[in-house]
Amino acid sequence: MKKITFEGWKNCVEMVSGDFRIVITTEIGPRVIGGFVGDSANIFNVDPALAGTSGAKKWVNYGGHRLWHAPEMFPRTYELDNTKATAKELKDGSICFTSGTDKTTGIYKSITIKALGDNKFRVEHRLRNDNMWDIELAPWALSVMAPGGVAIAPQNKAPKALLPNSFFAFWPYTEMNDPRLKLGKDFVMVHQKKDMEPLKIGFNCENGWIAYANQGTIFVKSFEHYQDADYPDNGCSIEIYTCSDMLEAETLGPLGLLAPGDEVVHTEEWLCIPGPANIKNEKDAAKYFPVPTAE
């Protein structure tokens, strides 16, 4: 493990896979706070007013990539995640980052990361119920991306289907005619723009990936979508939130009832490569991402 100081946070861990480099902070963890391909800018957003800080008395969005549990509710979702984390290297070369069990929720969180080579990382998100009672939850992996880019996810396709196969969720503050949102034939696209109100959309992404293209980089998160599982928020396995400062590319696992001591793991595979300066529409997206087909 290579220890570095990043954005004012000490004792960060740097991991490298090909030309893709990530930085994990142990000051406010578990959290991936930096991501770079070659000499690119940080693909993740870091709030400049919070950089290098910890110990906030209420939940704040430092940025980077974090682990939550759905469905969203207050105060459970907004447990403080600004305490120190440990970093332990495992036998297979992966590194497990954890702050242990949260005192307010009784949920243990960890993020275990392994470099796979070829600009790829495997990122395992683990939740364990350390309470004395059952809890229903779903793992929720949120990547806070730097401003100026576009999130891209594949539409569901089906051959001559007689029944609906896509179920979209729109949050109350989302306007259907928002110019940042494009529901195309092949892709769902959400552009991040400054000086605009929040927008959030989710759906049952059967193809199991979401990407973010920004400033010459393409970041892809792949995961397994379970066809017959019960997902939060009316069936969402991905969700996209954006506001004036950033965009969140979120994946979710199925809802499940965890008995005391039970755990659930939600795995993403990350890929980050050089990309175009800008992707404006579906035609541009089809040059870099697989167009979904009806099997």
CATH architecture: Distorted Sandwich
Main sheet overview: 10 strands, antiparallel
The helix/strand series, from N terminus to C terminus, equals: EEEEEEEEEEEEEEEEEHEEEEH
Q: How large is the radius of gyration?
A: 18 Å
Mean pLDDT: 96
Q: How much β-strand is present in the residues?
A: over 45%
Distance linking N and C termini: 44 Å
How is the secondary structure organized here?
Elements (H helix, E strand, L loop, with lengths): L1 E5 L2 E9 L2 E6 L5 E7 L26 E7 L15 E4 L5 E7 L5 E11 L2 E10 L5 E11 L4 E5 L13 E3 L10 E3 L3 E5 L7 E5 L5 E6 L2 E6 L9 H4 L2 E5 L4 E6 L3 E3 L4 E12 L7 H4 L10
Antiparallel strand pairs: 1-2, 2-3, 3-4, 5-10, 6-7, 7-8, 8-9, 9-21, 10-19, 10-20, 11-14, 11-16, 12-15, 13-14, 15-18, 16-17, 17-21, 18-19
Brief overview, please?
This protein has 2 helices and 21 strands. The chain has helices at 232-235, 282-285, and strands at residues 2-6, 9-17, 20-25, 31-37, 64-70, 86-89, 95-101, 107-117, 120-129, 135-145, 150-154, 168-170, 181-183, 187-191, 199-203, 209-214, 217-222, 238-242, 247-252, 256-258, 263-274.
Give the tags.
single chain, 295 residues, mainly beta, Beta-galactosidase, Chain A, domain 5, ten-stranded antiparallel beta sheet, seven-stranded antiparallel beta sheet, 2 helices, 21 strands
Structure description:
The chain has a single domain, classed as Beta-galactosidase, Chain A, domain 5 (Distorted Sandwich), CATH 2.70.98. The protein contains two helices and 21 strands. The longest helix has 4 residues, at 232-235. It has helices at 232-235, 282-285, and strands at 2-6, 9-17, 20-25, 31-37, 64-70, 86-89, 95-101, 107-117, 120-129, 135-145, 150-154, 168-170, 181-183, 187-191, 199-203, 209-214, 217-222, 238-242, 247-252, 256-258, 263-274. It starts with a strand and ends in a 10-residue tail after the last helix. By secondary structure, the protein is an all-beta fold. Strands 6-7-8-9-21-17-16-11-14-13 form a ten-stranded antiparallel beta sheet, with no helix packed on it. Strands 5, 10, 12, 15, 18, 19 and 20 form a seven-stranded antiparallel beta sheet that branches. A four-stranded antiparallel beta sheet has the order 1-2-3-4, with no helix packed on it.
